């Protein structure tokens, strides 16, 4: 199996997870389990695994949540990376991958009150300081996080204040490991524009595959193209796309179509963007109708193998899970699919590992719950 990048992940403490061991990852890994069992948290640590001493990557976990809450501050999002039940702010895990071997990562957090001027307070909060109050006393709460890689303190660290509105971390050190791409796709990603689609347009084979997948949703689709506006605008805008369909007789905005086709677009482009790296898809079945699952899932899994992408997916859907593990019968995917079911028992985190073949047997012969 040449497309294995990460082999194991052992979490000592992260968010609500304690002492969870996941070993024997294969090319395609499915994470299931009840709500709040830690599936997304596992994906987050796999996401930072490609650059674990990066303040920018760690802080992104607080920004790119699968269901963003606009009312939470940057300070709160960073604080929530730590175990909220413990007064000690600490993240610790180890990971084994083909590039760096065994690595230990630890982050130690510290919260303290800082006396400062009103001027500095307002700068951090990005608000206007009242005239005459610039040098009056103010107080901020600082959360400092130090990163240790294999026991050594990394020079880059990240600090955030309770009044911080925008985090902007600068990285200046040479990393003590080889980096690789680990791309996270949230369940609601289809609600945003897809910035990676240019890579699909540059690959003739994948572009043809994309059009065929789009035709699952509308058999009259001819192609997808960048938007060509009928009028000029005096300001730059992100790329948008149009669908050319015989049904409408002209190119129409992608927004005319439902969430399923938008999610499919994201999934196809994400597979291409993650070439030679790791792709993490949270609740992969979201917005995909069951009638489209077979073809889309088969394409994703087979193309991940072709492009040397190690795939991790979470799901709550029994039907979607059954469709994916059934792909083990395909000669191209034989012995590539592994199922990890996460549990909480008496305050402990545990995982059950099954090959796709064993999972099918457990489901069909013993009616065993796989989710």
Written overview of the protein:
With 371 residues, this protein is an alpha/beta fold. The protein is 27% helix and 31% strand. It has a 6-stranded antiparallel sheet with strand order 2-1-4-5-6-7. It has a 6-stranded mixed sheet with strand order 8-12-13-3-14-15, sandwiched between helices. The protein has a 3-stranded antiparallel sheet with strand order 9-10-11, covered by helices on one side. The longest helix has 17 residues, at 290-306. The mean pLDDT is 88.
Q: Which key phrases capture this entry?
A:
371 residues, alpha/beta, six-stranded antiparallel sheet, 15 strands
How are the SSEs ordered, and which strands pair?
Layout: E1 6-14, E2 17-23, E3 28-33, H1 39-48, H2 55-63, H3 74-79, E4 90-97, E5 101-117, H4 118-125, E6 137-149, E7 152-161, E8 182-185, H5 198-201, H6 204-217, E9 221-226, E10 241-245, E11 250-253, H7 259-273, E12 278-281, H8 290-306, E13 310-314, H9 318-325, E14 337-345, E15 348-355, H10 356-366
Parallel strand pairs: 3-13, 3-14, 8-12, 12-13
Antiparallel strand pairs: 1-2, 1-4, 4-5, 5-6, 6-7, 9-10, 10-11, 14-15
Helix pairs in contact: 6-7, 6-8, 7-8, 8-9
């Amino acid at each position: 199996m040449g497309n294995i990048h990460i082999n194991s992940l052992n979490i000592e403490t992260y968010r609500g997870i304690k002492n969870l061991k996941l070993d024997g990852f294969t090319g395609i890994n499915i994470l299931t389990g009840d709500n709040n069992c830690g599936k997304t948290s596992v994906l987050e640590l796999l996401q930072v695994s490609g650059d674990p001493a990066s303040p920018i990557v760690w802080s992104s976990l607080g920004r790119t949540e699968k269901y963003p809450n606009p009312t939470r501050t940057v300070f709160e999002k960073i604080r929530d990376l730590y175990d909220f039940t413990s007064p000690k702010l600490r993240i610790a895990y180890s990971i084994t991958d083909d590039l760096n071997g065994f690595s230990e990562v630890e982050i130690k957090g510290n919260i303290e009150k800082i006396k400062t001027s009103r001027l500095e307070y307002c700068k951090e909060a990005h608000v206007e300081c009242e005239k005459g109050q610039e040098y009056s006393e103010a107080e901020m709460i600082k959360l400092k996080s130090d990163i240790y890689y294999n026991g050594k303190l990394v020079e880059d660290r990240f600090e955030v204040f309770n009044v911080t509105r925008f985090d902007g971390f600068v990285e200046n050190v040479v990393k003590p490991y080889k980096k690789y791409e680990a791309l996270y796709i949230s369940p609601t990603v289809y609600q945003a524009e897809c910035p990676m689609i240019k890579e699909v347009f540059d690959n003739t084979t994948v572009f043809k595959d994309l059009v065929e997948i789009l035709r699952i949703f509308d058999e009259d689709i001819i192609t997808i193209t960048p938007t060509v506006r009928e009028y000029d605008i005096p300001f730059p805008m992100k790329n948008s796309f149009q669908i050319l369909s015989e049904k409408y007789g002209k190119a129409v905005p992608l927004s005319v179509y439902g969430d399923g086709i938008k999610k499919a677009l994201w999934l196809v482009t994400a597979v291409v963007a993650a070439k030679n790296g790791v792709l993490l898809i949270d609740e992969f079945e979201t917005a995909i109708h069951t009638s489209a699952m077979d073809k889309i899932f088969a394409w994703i899994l087979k193309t991940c193998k072709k492009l040397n992408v190690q795939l991790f997916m979470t799901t709550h859907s029994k039907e979607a899970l059954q469709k994916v593990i059934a792909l083990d019968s395909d000669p191209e995917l034989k012995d590539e699919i592994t199922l990890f079911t996460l549990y909480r028992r008496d305050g402990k985190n545990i995982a059950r590992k099954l090959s796709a073949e064993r999972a099918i047997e457990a489901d069909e012969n013993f009616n065993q719950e796989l989710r």
